[in-house]
Design goal:
Elements: H1 2-6, E1 25-31, H2 50-57, E2 60-66, H3 72-81, H4 85-88, H5 104-110, E3 114-119, E4 136-139, H6 146-158, E5 166-172, H7 192-199, E6 205-206, E7 209-210, H8 222-227, H9 230-239, H10 248-278, E8 285-290, E9 296-297, E10 303-304, H11 311-314, E11 315-316, E12 318-321, E13 328-335, H12 339-346, H13 361-364, E14 375-379, E15 384-389, E16 393-399, H14 404-413, E17 421-425, H15 429-442, H16 456-464
The structure holds zinc ion.
Residues 32-33, 72, 292-293 line the site of zinc ion.
Length: 473
C-alpha cells in the first residue's frame, strides 16, 4: 500500500520508509495562548501548573522554543505542515494550507494511524483547513476549554484497539481571552476596564489606555494600529487624550485571570495523563505539549496577541516525553515547525518534501544536537512582520504587506536605523538582516499569492469574538 502514498509524499525515495517494528502513538496537546514563562518548569509562578511541571520532570524540556507566528490558525498551520506562515495561509487570518502541502495528520494517516483532533473552535474550526487527514475532527466548543476536549480525546482513545497506532491532537483556548474557568480556579471576577480587556480583543489597549475601536485615525491606518508603531500610539493619544487608563489593580486582575485559566487547563492536562495511564498507553505514546503563541499581559502597555514577535507572544512551551526518550533540558533554539519532522523521525515515517523543520529526535535521545542559530517568526495579517530571534536578542522588521519575493528586496534595502527595524537584546543587526533576507528567499511561494480564500462562515465566527474589529471590510 505504501506506494500509493508516494504519489503525494514526494520524499518516498528516502530509505527511511519502512514500517516501524512497534509503532508509536502520538498525543499532541496545544495550550492555546500559553506563554512559556507562566509555566512552573519555565520559571512561572510556583504551584500554578503542577501537572505540567510533573510531566516536565520526566520529559525533554526545550527551554527556547518559538512560535512561527502569533495567531492561532496560521501558527497551527505551520505546526502541521512544517512550513513558514506565509507559505501555508493566505495572508488573512485563517489557516488554509494548499492541497500540495500535506498535513501531519495526512502523513500519519497514510502510515495506518488512526487520527483524531478535538479542538475548541475559533480559528481551529474545521473550515480553517486543518481537518484533512483526521478520521475525526471535532470542535467541542467555541473558544472553549480543554475540559471539553480532553474527555472526548480519552473517550475516543478508549475505543481504539491497543495495537492500533494513533495520533490524537487536543486543543483548548483556556488561556485565551475571554479567560473563563470554574471555581475554585476563578478568583474574584475582574470588573471595569480589566473585565473589558478580558472580554474583548485587547489590541485596543496601548500604553495602558483603552481606546475605541472605530477611531478614524489620520495619517496611519488600522494596519499600523495593529503594528503598534510609535506613530500609531502618538496618533491614538492625540485623538483620545482622555482614554480610560488601566490601573495597576486592573493589570493585576488581568494577569490573575490568565493564571487562573492556565491553572484550570493544567488540571485537565493532569486528567489526560491519568486517563492515558489508566488505558496503559503511556508506555507506547509520545506526548508533546506546546502552545501556538503567547500573550501580552501588560508588558510595554500591551495586552493580547496578534501584533508583535517579542517573547511574550512567541516564546512557547515545548515539552516532549515518550518511551526511550531521555528526560533533560535543552537550551538550544527550536521552532515549532521542528515538531513535524521530529514526529515523522520518531515513528519512522517520511517527512514531506518542502518541510523546513529539523528533527529534534537526536536531542530527545540525549545525543549531540545543536539548536538553530535563529528562530524566525512572521505575521501577515494586513501588515508584514518578520522577526529573527537569536540566543541573545531579536531583530524585527515591520512594514507594508508585500509579496514574499518583493519583501526580501525591501528588507535588504531598508535602513537599519529607519522606522522599519527594531531590535532588543544584543544582536548584530546588519548580519541578522542579511540572514533574514536569505531566509525569506529560501521560502516557497507565498500562499497569499495563490489567492486562498477565507471561508465566510469562519470570518463571521471570528468577528463575533472581536477579531478584526479595527478592520471590518
Ligand atoms: Zn492561539
Amino acid at each position: 500500500m505504501l506506494w500509493m502514498y508516494c504519489f503525494w509524499l514526494l520524499g518516498c525515495a528516502s530509505p527511511a520508509l519502512r514500517a516501524p517494528a512497534a509503532p508509536l502513538s502520538v498525543v499532541m496537546v496545544s495550550f492555546d495562548t500559553t506563554r512559556a514563562d507562566r509555566i512552573g518548569t519555565y520559571g512561572g509562578p510556583s504551584g500554578l501548573t503542577p501537572n505540567l511541571d510533573r510531566f516536565a520532570e520526566g520529559a525533554v524540556v526545550f527551554e527556547h522554543a518559538y512560535a512561527q507566528t502569533n495567531t492561532t490558525g496560521p501558527s497551527h498551520a505551520s505546526l502541521f505542515t512544517s512550513r513558514y506562515p506565509t507559505e501555508v495561509h493566505g495572508g488573512g487570518p485563517v489557516a488554509a494550507p494548499g492541497a500540495e502541502t500535506p498535513l501531519l495528520a495526512q502523513v500519519l494517516h497514510a502510515y495506518g494511524y488512526a487520527t483524531a483532533a478535538f479542538v475548541s473552535g475559533g480559528a481551529m474550526n474545521p473550515q480553517g483547513g486543518l481537518a484533512p487527514g483526521f478520521d475525526v475532527y471535532k470542535s467541542a466548543s467555541n473558544f472553549g476549554s480543554m475540559s471539553k476536549t480532553i474527555p472526548l480525546a480519552l473517550s475516543w482513545l478508549e475505543k481504539l484497539p491497543a495495537s492500533k497506532p494513533s495520533f490524537t491532537f487536543v486543543h483548548g483556548y483556556d488561556a485565551h481571552s475571554p479567560t473563563s474557568k470554574p471555581a475554585p480556579f476563578a478568583g474574584k471576577p475582574p470588573t471595569g476596564l480589566a473585565a473589558e480587556v478580558l472580554r474583548t480583543r485587547s489590541e485596543r489597549v496601548m500604553d495602558g489606555a483603552m481606546h475605541a475601536t472605530d477611531l478614524d485615525i489620520p495619517v496611519i491606518d488600522s494596519t499600523f494600529l495593529r503594528m503598534r508603531s510609535p506613530e500609531a500610539r502618538a496618533a491614538l493619544t492625540a485623538l483620545e487624550p482622555d482614554a480610560p487608563q488601566l490601573t495597576e489593580a486592573d493589570i493585576a486582575r488581568i494577569r490573575q485571570s490568565y493564571d487562573d485559566a492556565l491553572g484550570w487547563a493544567d488540571t485537565w492536562f493532569g486528567m489526560l495523563m491519568a486517563g492515558l495511564e489508566a488505558q496503559h498507553r503511556l508506555e507506547n505514546t509520545v506526548i508533546i505539549v506546546l502552545a501556538d503563541h503567547g500573550e501580552q499581559l501588560g508588558e510595554d502597555g500591551l495586552f493580547g496577541h496578534c501584533c508583535g514577535a517579542e517573547d511574550e507572544e512567541t516564546h512557547v512551551p515545548l515539552i516532549i516525553a515518550g518511551p526511550g526518550l531521555k528526560p533533560h533540558r535543552e537550551a538550544g533554539l527550536v521552532e515549532l515547525i521542528d515538531v513535524l519532522p521530529t514526529i515523522t523521525d520518531l515513528v519512522q515515517a517520511v517527512t514531506p518534501t518542502g518541510a523546513h523543520g529539523r528533527s529534534l529526535a537526536p536531542a530527545l535521545h540525549g545525543e549531540p544536537w545543536e539548536g538553530r542559530g535563529v528562530a524566525w517568526t512572521q505575521a501577515t495579517q494586513r501588515y508584514t512582520l518578520v522577526s529573527g530571534r537569536t540566543g541573545t536578542g531579536r531583530l524585527s522588521y515591520t512594514g507594508v504587506q508585500a509579496k514574499s519575493s518583493a519583501l526580501a528586496d525591501l528588507i535588504e534595502v531598508a535602513r537599519l536605523d529607519g522606522p522599519g527595524f527594531t531590535s532588543s537584546g544584543t544582536v548584530d543587526r546588519a548580519a541578522l538582516r542579511t540572514e533574514m533576507v536569505s531566509w525569506l528567499r529560501s521560502l516557497g511561494p507565498a500562499a497569499a499569492e495563490k489567492k486562498l480564500a477565507t471561508p465566510p462562515e469562519l470570518l463571521r465566527t471570528m468577528r463575533s469574538h472581536g477579531y478584526f474589529e479595527a478592520n471590518k471590510p
